[in-house]
Amino acid sequence: MDIISFNVNGLRAILKKGFKEWFERQKPDVLCLQEIKANKNQINPEEFLNLEGYNYYWNSAERKGYSGVLVLSKGKCEDVGFGIGIEKFDNEGRLIRLKYPDFTLFNVYFPNGKSNEERLQFKLDYYDAFLELCEGLRGRGEELIITGDFNTAHREIDLANPKANKKYSGFLPVEREWLDKLSQKGYVDTFRHFYPKKPEMYTWWTYRFNARKKNVGWRIDYFFVTEGLIDRVQGSSILSDVYGSDHAPILLRIK
Fold this sequence. Notes:
Layout: E1 2-7, H1 11-14, H2 19-26, E2 30-34, H3 45-48, E3 54-59, E4 69-74, E5 79-82, H4 87-90, E6 95-99, E7 104-109, H5 117-139, E8 144-149, H6 173-184, E9 187-189, H7 190-194, H8 211-214, E10 221-226, E11 233-238, E12 250-254
Parallel strand pairs: 1-2, 7-8
Antiparallel strand pairs: 1-12, 2-4, 3-4, 5-6, 6-7, 8-10, 9-10, 11-12
Helix pairs in contact: 5-6
């Protein structure tokens, strides 16, 4: 089973950049998109993509042209949920939960904390509320796959210029500590599971300074799985040759 996660930085924009052709070549079992910046009234995926055999699930932000997540899934899942259950978080359209027979999949676009201290605190509060939700599901015996744009690079190996960014949101100690907590509770970063020491592998680059060509980037998009699933994970990779966004898609292959 192939699951792909991709922050597209605008669904309407990326459809003009070869996304349809890439999707038809790739045909993943599940495609998780973040930062779609659109709602059902603005765009219908069926008009632009061949979705035969797929079901799709939206969670759009109340604010137009902002945030939003979308999942395309072959076949039907057992249950679908939208949001954390806290209004101040859920009106930004950041989460879709899909229950499959063997696991629950989260597609999440975590907040960015760069604009000001208030948004940084919002991000940290979202992190904590999300982890509480996950731990509740694990307490009921569910195995989880969590994917999306986490908006934080975990360790120095995960960005090109760690020393220069230690005081900026996206690499602050308090943000990285939450990823430490996630790992300590038994959630496995699948890319680092296979490539524990592989540097210069990133998923996001600023549009400025020719950063992607120079590979001056950050790894902020992840697949985390609970420990009970890790033996079933066959591969975890970054599709760095796919363009159209400031992010690269990431792929998880699982039995």
